[in-house]
Specification:
Elements: H1 5-9, H2 12-22, E1 25-26, H3 27-37, H4 46-58, E2 62-68, E3 74-80, H5 82-106
Antiparallel strand pairs: 1-3, 2-3
Helix pairs in contact: 2-5
């Protein structure tokens, strides 16, 4: 099933930060990994990815450095900073709240046992 791209727009930062929490990556590697892990639901274009990474770098959420990849090419790698880890924690909490609320609506209301 094809997923509306606007659903991805709000969660792209979360997904990228999560990848970088595990290991440093270069841009194309992130594109490939997101596609693989999501069974091709998340297919980012370079024109979407690199401006977002540049913004995250300017905000101090990621660092950039050059290193040789497996194929001996020099690539720009992105690594998560401590500030980026803080943003990841915030984005994960935000996502849990959002997805829980959506699921509650889809199930017809608040879950049983929840006191208000």
């Amino acid at each position: 099933m094809k997923v509306d791209k606007s659903l991805l727009a709000g969660s792209t930062t979360l997904l990228l930060l999560k990848l970088l929490e595990e290991k440093d990556m270069y841009g194309y590697q992130m594109i490939e990994e997101l596609a693989r892990r999501s069974n091709d639901t998340f297919t980012l274009k370079a024109g979407t990815l690199y401006p977002l990474l540049h913004q995250l770098e300017q905000q101090g959420m990621v660092n950039v450095y050059e290193a040789q990849a497996e194929n001996q090419r020099v690539r720009k790698y992105y690594s998560l900073t401590s500030k980026g880890r803080g943003l990841l924690n915030e984005k994960e909490a935000e996502w849990k709240t959002f997805s829980s609320a959506v699921n509650q609506v889809l199930r017809g209301g608040a879950s049983y046992g929840t006191a208000f």
